[in-house]
Amino acid sequence: MSKEIIKLTKISKKFFGTYKDIIILKNVNLKINSGELVSLTGPSGSGKSTLLHLIALLDQPTSGEVFFKKKSFSKSTDDEKDLIRRQNISIIYQQNNLLSDFTALENVTIPLLANGYNWKSAVKKASKFLSLVDLSRRLHHFSTELSGGEQQRVAVARAIITEPDLILADEPTGSLDRKTSNQIFSLLSKFKSKNRAILYATHNRELANRADYKLNILDGNITRKNE
Ligand SMILES: Nc1ncnc2c1ncn2[C@@H]1O[C@H](COP(=O)(O)OP(=O)(O)O)[C@@H](O)[C@H]1O
Ligand SMILES: [Mg+2]
Predict the structure, then answer these.
(1) I need a surface site. Which of 50, 83, 150, 217 has the fewest CB within 10 A?
(2) CA-to-CA distance for 69 and 5, rounded, in angstroms?
(3) Which of 12, 14, 25, 50 is the best mutation target for the ligand 1 pocket, counting ligand atoms within 8 Å of the beta carbon and taking the most?
(4) Residues 130/94, Cβ–Cβ less than 8 Å
(5) Does the beta carbon of 44 sit less than 6 angstroms from any atom of ligand 1?
(6) Where are the chain's structural domains?
(7) Does the 4-225 domain belong in CATH 3.40.50.300?
């Protein structure tokens, strides 16, 4: 049965500028349930990253409430939000996503160590997840020694290793060629699960269309398209 993962009620987001304030989101209501793979499109500067940051509890709305699994976070401390993120929310960025002084294996191991795994069991699980993304032969490479596509495979493994309820991806294939973008997207969609929601921002129409449904941001409003 699907569960509510994200709910936004009457969310507005304003940035206060020196000359002029800008309103990025206007009274947005949104619900995303487990089992859903959802794309987020919109022109550059329309507020895709802003929305993902609000959902990730990394930023606060100007007004309105963000719920994660039916809990409101408007009055939560940073520590409470950090904990939820560490255990339940993973984020994949376009690039510079990995810690460059660490190997692929170490990058994937770190979220487990942060969640209380001991080194040996963390390494064992990280190796298994890197094999799921077809990187068994690159465990000890530093991220700078990997191709863009391989780096994003590590980022996917790192996002999935904590078995989160929510994965947010901010243009995860934005710097990759078409074939590699398709591969990374297929990998991400492989980790779709009935217990999890995946929301990804993209400029790529082909990939946006592969979602269960699409959300589009324009002029501060979000509309849903089912085709
Ligand atoms: N911290 C900030 N202060 C002021 N303006 C910001 C801030 N963050 C983003 N913006 C502005 O908000 C708009 C939306 O940005 P963003 O969410 O990054 O768009 P997108 O990801 O869709 O390209 C942009 O015009 C950007 O300049
Ligand atoms: Mg962005």
Answers:
(1) 83
(2) 5
(3) 50
(4) no
(5) yes
(6) 4-225
(7) yes
Q: Which residue among 18, 28, 44, 46 is best mutated to probe the pocket of ligand 1, counting the most ligand atoms within 8 A of its Cβ?
A: 46
Q: How far apart are CA 12 and CA 28, in angstroms?
A: 7
Q: For 117-170, write each residue's pLDDT tens digit.
A: 999 999 999 999 999 999 999 999 999 999 999 999 999 999 999 999 999 999
Q: Is residue 196 within 8 Å of 35, Cβ to Cβ? A: yes
Task: Give the residue ranges of DSSP H helices in 46-160.
Answer: 48-55, 78-88, 104-114, 119-132, 148-160
Separation of alpha carbons 9 and 76, rounded Å = 17
**Residue 33, CA distances (Å) to 68, 70, 128 in order:** 10, 11, 28
Q: How far is CA 178 from the centre of its chain?
A: 20
Cβ(94) – ligand 1 distance below 6 Å: no
